[in-house]
Every structure is written in C-alpha cells, then in structure tokens.
Amino acid sequence: MNTVGSRIKPEIYQRWLQRPATQRLLALEAGWLRDWVSQLHGGHLLYTGIDSDPRFLQRSRLQHSFRMGLPWQRGVVAAQGEMRDGAWPFADESLDVVVLQHSLDMSHRPHQMIREAARTVMPNGYLIVVGFNPYSWWGGIRWLRTFSTELPWLTNPVSESRLRDWLLLLDFRVEQVSPVAHTWPLSIVSESVSRRIDRVLAGTHWLPANAYVLVARKTVAGLTPIRPRRWQLPEASFGMASPVASSVAGTQHCGK
C-alpha cells in the first residue's frame, strides 16, 4: 500500500525545510506556539513536528520539554528518541502537554496518532495541534497535485471539524482555534512582504486560512459541572406551595 507515511522520505522532508516558503510557515506558527507554551505549567512537554529547530520550546515553563522524531525525520533533526505514529513509548497519562506540529498531516494513520496523544496526556493536560486546512485554496491546489512526490502536497491533512469530532470522543474540550497562513505559500511582491501580510491576517476568520492552531484540554471524567436547579412542587396537587431545592455542586476546572 502506497501510503503517505511510506512516501515521505527524509530527503524529501529536508528539501522542503530549506525552502523560503517553509521557513515563513514555521515563523508564523512559532509565534502562536510560543505564546501558548509560555503560559502552561507542569512536568513534561512532548514536541513532535516539522520544525527542525523549535526554538519556541525555550519559552516553555514546564520542567522538562523534549522532542521525539518520526521515521521520515531520521537523520535530519536532533531528537531525544524516535517513535511511530501509532505506538508511542509513554505510559498512560504521563505527559502534561503534547504539541503536534503538522505531524498528523504527515501520517497515514492520523486517528491512531491522536488516540496515542490522548492516551498519554494526563487529565487537565493540553494537546496543541497545528494542521493544514484541506478546505482552503491551498487544499484545492493540493487536490490538483495528487500525484506530486514533494511536500507540502504529499500530505494527508485533517480538517479542523474532523479533528474536533475525534477530540470530543476522546474527552477533550477545544479551547481555541486560530487560523494562520492565509496567503502562504504564495509570495506576494516579496517574501518579506508576504510574511507581513500573513502576520496581519493571522487569527482572522473572514478569509479561509491554509493552516490552523488548535488547543484542547483533556477533561476529567465524572467531574462535568452541573448547574444547580430549583424545583417547585405544583400547588394544585398538594394544596400548598412547597418548594424543594435540589442543588448538585459541580467541580469546574479553570483554563490556563
């Protein structure tokens, strides 16, 4: 079977990294990732993604931030270890934050990868996913280039709505989705002008973006907040009004 995972080779990935448009994409996404990882706390942060030098991790406030590589990155990036899409070498609920930067796009088993990420994130932990938007003008061009052997056309993007459905079933609450890379990979006038335009448009929804940054938090089973309700017994049945208060106190976990 000729899947996305088997078609992406380290040399294809390395060539793509060297392109100015790819560096522009990484710079755009790094700003959003830096803002998020600088707000979160905990013990362990796992990063796996396309950035060969994720310097935004230096802003992390977690005690231990580390990188795991995937087979198509072998020999290209420096990582603390290597893992497969659908088999992560981590115990259940052992990570506070997982960052997937286009890792789902590079996988032929994105649903299994999300399941592994969900399994390893502890309750109240965060999952940050950066992905390509297949329902954008970039997605239309990708469809026309189905038989391309180069990145970023050689991908398997997961839409935001599909990812939301998966996360809902895995007990995650989506807290924020930010559209990014509205004009990428086009170069308008020059690369520097294109970067400025994308920075201005980042976060806006009035124009379809080619990528998104989704932040979700793992909920705690059995602790869903329930709003207190007050019941009034009908007077006609008992001859008098007899209010009965029934209040269920829920435990609410705050965000960041």
TrEMBL record:
Provide any one GO MF term from the record. S-adenosylmethionine-dependent methyltransferase activity
UniProt keyword annotation of Transcription regulation present: no
Q: Which InterPro entries match?
A: Methyltransf_11, SAM-dependent_MTases_sf
Q: Enumerate the UniProt keywords alphabetically.
A: Methyltransferase, Transferase
What Pfam families does the entry give?
Methyltransf_11 (PF08241)
Q: What SUPFAM superfamilies does the record point to?
A: S-adenosyl-L-methionine-dependent methyltransferases (SSF53335)
Positions of the Methyltransferase type domain: 41-129
Q: Gene3D superfamilies in the record, alphabetically? A: Vaccinia Virus protein VP39
Q: Name one GO biological process term.
A: methylation
Protein name stated in the entry: Class I SAM-dependent methyltransferase
